[in-house]
Amino acid sequence: MSSEDEPFSLVLNEQTCEQVLNSAVPLAEKFLWIATADLKDLHVARPGKKFGPFLGVLADLVRDGVDVRLIHAKEPGPRFRKDFDRYPELIESDRFERLLCPRMHMKCVIIDGSFAYIGSANLTGAGMGAKSPLRRNFEAGFITRDKTTIAELMDFLDSLWIGDCCIKCQRRDLCPDPVC
Fold first, then answer.
1. Which of 153, 143, 163 is nearest to 106 (CA)?
2. Which of 74, 64, 79 is nearest to 98 (CA)?
3. Chain segment 103-157, per-residue pLDDT in tens
4. How would you classify residue 53: left for phi > 0, otherwise alpha for psi between -120 and 50, otherwise beta?
5. From the CB of residue 143, how many other CB atoms can be counted at a distance below 10 Å?
6. Which of 29, 122, 155, 161 has the fewest CB neighbours in a 10 Å radius?
7. Contact 99, 179 (CB under 8 A)
């Protein structure tokens, strides 16, 4: 049985960067949803370049008509913000949406409703395995193409996105921009 026939496949450490960020994300055609607790200035392999900001991948997708949602728990650092400002597509396009939720601890990537990564890795170089083996975190996760699992995950993430939990949230005083 090939890994595409299996409902879930395990990814460890740098496999997350290789199989999710470098291989799957650039193939998004309709939408890409990313949830993470931590968000840093992540660099990944880029076509024709050695490495470049992951934000460049997101900007390329937005330019190609892909809708991107990014939900994270805290404001990213100054290097991320500096790189972010280099991509007007991410600032000006309605195709890129970003939401800050201090309770977000989930880490997942959903592509076109047909691919999902769920695991421990934050959207950082150390988390995704993009750093040197001596500097990266130890991470584990699963990739699935199981449509039922992905649909449940999308429903859960979408309910967070539209603010279903905001009204009763007991961390609302820490939320810089409540959805509702």
1. 153
2. 74
3. 899 999 999 999 999 999 988 888 887 877 788 889 999 999 999 999 999 999 9
4. beta
5. 22
6. 155
7. yes
CATH topology classification for 8-174: Endonuclease; Chain A (3.30.870)
Tens digit of each residue's pLDDT (9 = 90 or more) over 21-76: 999 999 999 999 999 999 988 888 877 768 889 999 999 999 999 999 999 998 89
What's the whole-model pTM score?
Answer: 0.91
Query: Could you count the other beta carbons within 10 Å of the beta carbon of residue 107?
Result: 22
Token pair of 129 as six digits: 């395995």
Three-state secondary structure along the chain?
Answer: CCCCCCCEEEEECHHHHHHHHHHHHHHCCCEEEEEECCECCCEEEECCEEEEEHHHHHHHHHHCCCEEEEEECCCCCHHHHHHHCCCHHHHHCCCEEEEECCCCCCCEEEECCCEEEEECCCECHHHHCCCCCCCCCCCEEEEECCHHHHHHHHHHHHHHHCCCCCCCCCCHHHCCCCCC
CB atoms within 10 A of CB 153: 20
Written as six digits, the tokens of 91 are 């600032």
Nearest to 123 by CA among 38, 45, 11: 38
Handedness of CA 113, 119, 39, 21 (dihedral sign): negative
The β-bridge partners of 51 are: 45
